[in-house]
Amino acid sequence: FNLIIADVRLPGSMDGIDTLKKIKEIYEINNYHSKMIIMTGYADEEAPIKAIRLGVDDYIYKPFGVEDFLHAVRRNIRFLHLEREVDLYLQLSIHDGLTNLYNHRYFHEIIIREIDRAARYNNPLSLFTIDIDNFKGFNDAYGHLTGDMALRRFAHLFKWSLRKVD
Description:
Layout (H helix, E strand, L loop, with lengths): L2 E5 L8 H14 L5 E6 L5 H9 L3 E4 L4 H29 L9 H18 L13 H8 L1 H18 L5
Parallel strand pairs: 1-2, 2-3
Helix pairs in contact: 5-6
């Protein structure tokens, strides 16, 4: 769901905040982002605090007008789109456009972090680099499109054969 709207008071054993907490547990496991709005007509002091701790994005008090409700919905959907754009641009900034492997700049960020972590916990750290011999000659002989295809296949092979944490 892109947007989840719940009332604090719901029929049954779970209130709106408990329902949102359960939904949040499910979608965080799947790394799925939703915006959550909770509404209430009751002046319970604990409900807003629980909602904020849960990470609810908006809190609407009843009675509210249709325009106020629609404004909250539009604002949260706009924020959702902005967050997804930020995620997209972050992914584009750290991956190579051809191979979708991490790029050179991000590699340097990671390797410094991994060296520090290995030193801190006194763990061994290994690094290997691969050079495709005479690749310029391959590109010259078969063309850059074929060379790009070869690089993508090598990248796929590396991703497939290594653990996700490597």
